[in-house]
Design goal:
195 residues, alpha+beta, 4-stranded antiparallel sheet, 12 strands
Amino acid sequence: SVSLIPAREPEHSRQKGWRIRSRALHENRLDSKYYSPHFIELADRIVDPDYVPLDFCLSGLRYGASVPADYVPSGEGMAFIRGTELERDRIDRSKAADLHPSLRHEIGANTLSERDVLITRSGTVGVAAPVPSSLIGAGYGSFMMRLSPKKEWPSAYLSWCLNSWLGRNQVERLENGAVQLNINMEELGSVKIWR
């Protein structure tokens, strides 16, 4: 129940070894981090109907555009959001650069709409921010995903949930990769959101 989820992240157990119940094993995950006791405990806490998968809250989810890094000064091309501009719950455009106008056709449908949320999917995984009205129509890069919430799910709320300790822990458990950490659409869509 909701009362089992504290406002602050609980202290984690520091035990060195642990056992996993066979029903808790996932066929696609062999890495030990995925089975850390604090991740298992968290997963056990968020199974009731007060939580829904992120997929339930979205009308769409899309990877960003993979385009050459041909940037021009801000205001001289198409506004383009890079992963380095995402901060928790905001997009910092203070060091913004635009994409060269000749690359507009390569952006395709990878443009931002009203109520969208951007989230990093590679590198620093799981940093989410709602898209401000000033960036509607801007393009976004391949190291991010665009979340398009259903009308009943405010973008600022989804961003807050994903950036909270509850969302960050779930994303941390799901991220994977040897050299650079990543998360895919299916994994991100399984993150639980508090109703």
